[in-house]
Amino acid sequence: MSATDLQQPAVASLPKRLPNSGGVPTYVATSVKPISLPQVASADGGRKLGKASDRELGNALKPAIEQVVLDTLRENPKIVIDIVYPVLGRVIRKSITSALQSLVASVESQAADVFSLKRLKWRWQAFTSQRSYAEIVLANSVVCSVDEVLLIHRETGLLLVHASRDSEHARDADLVSSMLTAIEDFARDSFDLDADDSLSSFSMGGQTVLIRTSPMMLIAAAVAGNPTSKVNDMLDEVMETLHSNYHDALANFCG
Amino acid sequence: MTKKLKKKLCLIGSFGVGKTILVSKYVKGIFSEKYLSTVGVMISQKTVEIGDCEVLLMVWDLAGEDDFQGLRLSFIKGASGVLFVADGTRAETLRLTQQHMERLGEFYSDIPTLLLLNKADLQDQWDIAEAHLDEVRGKVKVFRTSAKTGENVEEAFVRITEMMIAPDEPTTEAFL
Question: What's the complex ipTM?
């Protein structure tokens, strides 16, 4: 077939290969938009003509192929996931492994030269459990700490109970409780949320304030570091217990 | 033995009546005035002793609004008392306060209230007619106050606290 032949409508019936089970390819005529290629005059015959026609043919087919690929991906995006997943998985694993290694190395270097009874105990724990010393240090290290907890009457914003590591904070706890309630009301009004909706947390710097609410009260816990699931679960548990034990008392609370 | 109580008290009034000066001079706060224009409320606290009772008042100074619709009602919920503040040198602020009192009564009819006619030190600029004042007095107890001199400020806080502890005076019946 020559380049000029490609101009002809014959191209419109390019065959499409169908899967078969007999080993012999089966083709069926399919409708393809006719393409036109320029006449190429070549002194050295078929080689130049071939390259030029390949490029022109590619350019001509490009929009159609792109469209087919896009349609296929839209219809079945899983194809891309299947292809990319092994590559992506390896990259993510490598990145996590690298981060963990540097963390363990950092803990190890910090802990290596510290000699104390607690550290000796950790070393013994590592020896008996056949785990690395760094792993034990990490497991025993505090990931986050709850610095302050406020129990607030939800309707009035009045502070019911306050606990803090720092006694300085205690003096302003009443004001903070009321302001926290006001901010919660402000957020609910501003975003037109339901009465049942509430702030669940907010973060600033290294501090996160976790908030749990019931219809009667609100618990706000200021946490330094990343709050663990244990802290979150504990707050849920405390709120449930308080709600069931003090529901009647809080319903009649007036200051 | 001293009995300790905590109560929420709201301050409501139009722009420029002197609410924030009253609060900043006579109660203790840690939040700056910018909260009034941002969140719409500034919260301070004041301890008032009534007999053997020590009452910690959490004072919610609501942003001055000339229109009741602009007030965030959610900030008033749970309040044990409300201090309305008007400017004695501007009669229109008293009329607006009367509207606020009537509207508030629709939602919170059982809250003890007092009206502070502020800027009592500016007698030469006083703009409230006696007839108007008599009309208001029929509905709510009125205190002439001055944030500048401190006249009647402490008395007003003590009186509203007494009413919050034992709300025996029918100060809100006019709203019904």
Answer: 0.80
